[in-house]
Amino acid sequence: MSSDFARKLARRAGIVTILVSTAFLSACQVRPLYSESTGVTEKLGSVGFSEAGTRVGQVVRNRLIFLASRGAGEVEKPEYMVELQVSSYVADTLLVQSSDTSRAAARLFRSVTLCAPPKTIRSSRRADAKRPP
Questions:
Q1: Has this prediction a pTM greater than 0.85?
Q2: Tell me, what's the pLDDT at 127?
Q3: Are strands 80-92 and 47-49 parallel, antiparallel or unpaired?
């Protein structure tokens, strides 16, 4: 008799646990960080980027335009302007030259300034090193 009671109690406790956890999980929401309701998409869409002077600068600029506008292209009359200065340096790292092997270290230097003309909002400089595996 007591084992019947223990089974029923365990079963009811399991059902209650499932119901409570379902109630808690139904309150959770997953939303994108840059969703439409936050207004960040519109602000990112109103950012313009300066012209690039090098091939590497052009690649960086094109990627930033694509990400900021979500693939829609450049903004005609931007509210904000990002001044980009990008340069790169590639150095050979092999101690002994070989005809079938190459290895190099690339370094990217960038300087970014965010402006809401005529005022500068934020400025940053950074150098990144990339070494092949």
A1: no
A2: 76
A3: parallel
